[in-house]
Specification:
This protein has about 625 residues and is of the alpha+beta class. The chain has 16 helices and 32 strands. The strands form 7 sheets. The protein has an 8-stranded mixed beta sheet with strand order 6-5-9-3-2-13-16-15. A 6-stranded mixed beta sheet has the order 1-21-22-20-19-18, covered by helices on one side. The structure holds zinc ion (ZN).
């Protein structure tokens, strides 16, 4: 996945990532799911599941607590209402709800089917403390739009995760379905009814479906057929409008990947939010083997949307390399309700994000200057997280604090880990081998059906490459030593310099250091993932702190706006007392306002590099 922080206005309007598709064999009895998108009742969709015959007296039904690519516990079972079990005569059987995501069926042998209602997640994003990230969420808008991230609609029975599924979906005739899920022709005369098949539960949830007014375009990128479908509430954005940028980008990605195997079909589902109280607030995307769901606000300017689509879709598309192909057992046999996390987010997210930057320079889509500026941004942003936290420990424990709130560093430091490894491998191989070579080698060994053993991966990479890289992993990936980026960049003739520049108290240029919680706009917090200015640092404030009070004024969105306005007239000697909530503890921070400065970093290109340095840089960026 990737989350994008879009600042829509300089004032505080703050808003908050192929399976083989063979036909189901006739011998195996599939789990039959029916979803009715026509008779929507109270903004809820009715789902019926016929599991076949149980041999045990009791069984459990589960809706996922967590899904691959999200790295957070979202409890999709919370959105299920009125789960009822029926016997073959249509009489109701007892069901015990065990927790948010599990139901016990005590007379399992008698169960014919179960049915329940599904509420959408978009409706409640602004009401709950930790909303489901919108690209993993669901939307139900009668006759208009249905975003079916199927883990929100369809569950699984204990022991039956590997059983094939059929999904019959009845939808308004005016809406068109877009998905990479395999559709079968049932011969049914029912207009608006489609039947899909999946080989196992994972394949169901790996293939979201977007129902919307027809607005899609299909194009060919070498051997991949790409479909882009757009839900544009006001109808202003046509899928065709985005096609040229997406085509150029994906062709460049295909060229970059060379003969690394990928998918033959890819579906991009773009949902545009109206930013209303019941609409999506989390912007970015979630990856799947042969599709991605992208959410952005309808209001962003076309040019920003196109740029954001390039950044986000290229990231998600590179996920076909890892973790969708190269991944550990933890991901192959993903436990949707008692998840065990892998220690390799440095690769799943870090390599993916690094590739999404590197292919652009390697394929000539951006200049060297632009590439260097993006590296500098990553370095600066990474300083907004714990730089002395072991990346493998963080990854393994990403669902709990203090690791959870450092998650987004996988896109910053995770990228830089790969950059340093890339430079190191190029140096050791005389320019021949880099991280892309490594990923190709790994993808020859591991694939969609062949996971690696989580604790063995790093040793394996060392034995495939050079013993000299073992220190790098030991110190900066497994270990907790910050990476001396200048030492790695020096090898390619780049120098990191920084200067203290005068700034303002609450903004870095146009970007605020503070943000409002979309679920509670009066909860103003200091953003993580930004290196703080001298004002916040000297006070002892940290990213993630919730600001409760400044100089006697209780903080709300309104009062914060006032203080930001006044701050432009603050004197360096002004006494500041700031009460913050840090992980539930109230702290009084005191100090002088001072003259705010921020660290401006730049990458300087060595003027007269040696031929060896120049050759290494060329190999790194262009080979
Ligand atoms: Zn991702």
């Amino acid at each position: 996945m990737i989350r994008k922080f879009l600042i829509l206005s300089p004032v505080l309007l703050l808003l908050g990532c192929g399976a083989s598709q063979t036909l189901v064999s006739a011998e195996s009895q599939p789990i039959a799911v029916s979803i009715d998108l026509v008779e929507v009742q109270d903004d809820r969709v009715s789902v019926t599941i016929d599991p076949g015959v149980f041999s045990e007296n009791e069984t459990y039904f589960y809706i996922p607590k967590i899904v691959p690519g999200t790295y957070s516990e979202d409890n999709y079972g919370k959105y299920i209402d009125g789960l009822t079990a029926y016997d073959y005569d249509g009489s109701i059987l007892p069901v015990n709800k065990v927790d948010d995501n599990s139901w016990l069926l005590t007379n399992a042998q008698k169960v014919d089917k179960i049915s329940y209602f599904v509420n959408d997640t978009f409706d409640t994003e602004t009401e709950v403390e930790e909303p489901v990230f919108s690209p993993a969420g669901t939307n139900i808008l009668k006759d208009e739009n249905f975003l079916l991230n199927l883990h929100g609609f369809v569950g699984y029975f204990k022991g039956l995760k590997e059983t094939p599924y059929t999904l019959t979906i009845r939808a308004p005739a005016s809406l068109e379905a877009s998905t990479s899920l395999q559709r079968i022709n049932t011969g049914s005369s029912n207009k608006g009814e489609n039947t899909y098949v999946a080989n196992r539960y994972f394949e169901v949830i790996d293939n979201p479906i977007l129902y919307a007014q027809p607005n899609s375009v299909t194009f060919q990128i070498k051997d991949i057929s790409v479909t882009l479908s757009v839900y544009s509430p006001d109808g202003s954005l046509k899928a065709k409008d985005l096609q040229p940028k997406m085509e150029t980008m994906m062709l460049a990605q295909k060229n970059f990947l060379g003969d690394i195997n990928g998918t033959k079909q890819y579906t991009i589902l773009l949902y545009l939010s109206q930013l209303s109280a019941t609409d999506a607030t989390g912007f970015g995307a979630l990856e799947h083997h042969s599709s991605t769901v992208v959410v952005f606000p309808q209001q962003i300017p076309r040019e920003t949307l196109e740029e954001s689509m390039v950044d986000v879709v290229s990231h998600e598309f590179f996920h076909i390399v890892t973790p969708l192909s190269v991944h550990s057992r933890e991901i192959q046999y993903f436990d949707f309700n008692e998840p065990k996390m892998s220690m390799h987010l440095w690769m799943y997210e870090g390599t993916t994000e690094y590739f999404s930057m590197l292919f652009q320079i390697q394929q000539g889509l951006i200049s060297e200057a632009e590439f260097y500026s993006r590296i500098m941004d990553k370095i600066s942003n990474s300083k907004g997280y714990e730089d002395t936290m072991s990346f493998t420990t963080m990854s393994k424990n990403i669902l709990v604090e203090p690791y959870k709130s450092n998650y987004a560093n996988v896109y910053e430091k995770g990228t830089l880990i790969n950059m340093c490894l890339d430079i190191l491998l190029r140096e050791l191989s005389g320019g021949e081998k880099g991280v892309r070579w490594l990923m190709k080698e790994l993808s020859n060994k591991y694939d969609v059906n062949t996971p690696f053993n989580d604790p063995d991966l790093i040793d394996e990479i060392i034995s495939m490459t050079y013993p000299d890289i073992s220190d790098f992993f030991a110190q900066h990936v497994i270990g907790n030593e910050p990476i001396p980026y200048d030492q790695y960049l020096k090898k390619v003739g780049l120098e990191v310099t920084f200067a203290e520049q005068p700034g303002t108290y609450f903004y870095l240029g146009q970007e605020p250091y503070i943000d409002a919680n979309p679920a509670n706009l009066d909860a103003i917090f200091i953003r993580k993932g930004m290196e703080l200015n001298s004002f916040f640092k000297d006070l002892g404030a940290k990213g993630g702190d919730i600001i409760k009070n400044i100089n006697g004024t209780d903080i709300t969105l309104e009062s914060m706006r006032g203080i930001v306005g006044q701050s432009f007239g603050w004197d360096a000697d002004k006494e500041i007392s700031m009460r913050v909530d840090r992980n539930g503890k109230l702290l009084e921070l005191k100090g002088k306002a001072g003259t705010p400065t921020y660290k401006e970093r730049s990458l300087d290109v060595e003027e007269t590099p040696s031929a060896a340095v120049l050759a290494l840089r060329e190999a790194w960026l262009k080979k």
